[in-house]
Protein 1
Amino acid sequence: MSSISSFINTFIQPAYFIISGFIGLPNMKYYYVFLFFVFIVSVLGNVAVMAVICLDHNLRTPKYVAVFNLAFVDLLGSCALVPKVLDIFLFNHYYVPYNDCLTFLFFCYTCLSMQALNLVALCYDRLMAIMFPLHYHVKVTHKIMFSMITFFWLFVITCVLLAIGLLTRLSFCKSVVINSYFCDHGQIYKLACNDNFPNFVISHLLPCLFLWLPLVIICSSYICIGYTLAQVVAAQERAKALRTCTAHLSLVVIYFCPILITFTMGSGIHPNARIINLSLTSVIPPLLNPVIYVLHTQEIRSSIKTILKGRNKSKIMVK
């Protein structure tokens, strides 16, 4: 009984956390202004992609269910992260209430994890299209794609809520300064003054589940794709099949390279470098994903032209 009362007396849940941001770097407000412009362009781009998919019935295929979900996750992630970051650093609101910080963490990590799993869903589409072209419409259906994406959402939300639940059992009796630009899970649990071993475990488990495992699945899929294409005699057919993968491969490289560097180096990376890597990983893919899909996907380009022609015709008829 005395041990329980002593735990209650020593358990300290802070009223707020302090987000430190960059350490010792002058004129960093220009960097946050840059993030603002990236945010505006990414919002416009992802809204445009979602609108095109909704307006064009030809794009309501299983593949574009995954593309729509990717655009939605990019939009949600940008809206959850950038406005809050700008509020903290441009308007000097460094003190973030405890519950707000955990909510901030939830949306950031959920969207970051869903971006990786969306790439897995798109990889499945390419794998089936190239390895089983005659059975593609049987193996990639709306039901399968919706089920896959729903499972991904539920799995990610459950894991992130588990990580947050473990944070709520921590006592913060010393510093409440988070050396990051957002409520970073890895930085928060290290501030605790009671046992944080479960948090340490989950901080290493989640990157394995949402970064390394998706990357292994994607790499394995492309090994299978490469083997299948090697059996194709006509070089022109091989090149044509590879071109259908260029957009997806570009997204994989843009997303995984900086974030894997950050999580692989762990505590060995300088806090400022960690902030730059994570912030660019959070905002650059949502910026480039719509551009890449518009440039590399014939269906979306054709759909945009059709929609624009339809609008021009309606304007002429009105006149």
Note: The chain is about 75% helix and 5% strand.
Protein 2
Amino acid sequence: MKEDMVKLISAEGFEFVIDKKAAMVSQTIRNMLTSPGSFAETEHGEVTFPEISTTILEKICQYFYWSLQYAR
């Protein structure tokens, strides 16, 4: 996976590979990916959401791209 991409994994195990800039719309994901130390999220660019279903995570990803494009 490219360094400018991030993998978000839903509760069911579906993987969404999105642009890191889009993922950084979320302050929570930004903190997970940029926190100091050797966390799996930081090292592999992957964030697992065991509480978030695939359909909801898909909408979240769509929102990230929408926000990146229009919310400036």
Note: Strands lie at 5-9, 15-19, 46-48.
Protein 3
Amino acid sequence: MAMAGRLRSGLPFLRQVLTFDTPSAVAAQRCAASKSLLCPLTNTELSRDFATASASTEQKIKVPVTMFGVSGNYASALYIAAVKANVLDKVESELVDLVEASKRSLSFSQFMKDSSVTADTRVKAINEISTQAKFSEITKNFLAVVAENGRLSQLERVVQRFAELTMAHKGEVKVIVTSVIPLPQEEEKELKETLQDMIGQGKKVKVEQKIDPSILGGLVVEFGQKVFDMSIKTRARQMERFLREPVNLE
């Protein structure tokens, strides 16, 4: 009961903090994504078009979130191909399953990280896996490109970035809530409502709970580029720094 009370006490403070984070900041982020985007398919590593139809006859697709770096380039290219082929959910499911399978198989995990394996061997192995798993052509072709370019060791990060794009495509916002104990249903509902009010209509909040006893109590809420740390651990550190400051009695 005491722990639930501490969780409940942190929610009004979070609502107060979020009140100052006006929708204009969120709008600015969406505006940035609508600007001229980096086109990953022009990269020499991504020269293969994963879609089977001619790009000239299809509608130009823009990624909902601008991404950078190697993983962002691959994820963006895959997103465009999957949307064109109308297999976004299927591709995401297939890749998530593959990543989870690699975590359960030590030999497969080592194979993906081994840079000494030749490109031909990597591609042949990945093609066999894709065929046995009955992956879609988009997923199969994408994995072949990743294997050929020696990027299998980064596949998990690429899939994470791709998942971010699919969530944005569906209008979903992932919120990670860290607490000492699982968030009670009433507190989770209240937190969702608070975040929903801040984000606005048209977006759906998806809460992922994490348990971390080291924060001692309270909540840590993360979404987008924002982190609201209301943990007892952080408050204790702030108090400690305050108490160590010299006192001016003059």
Note: The longest strand covers residues 172-179.
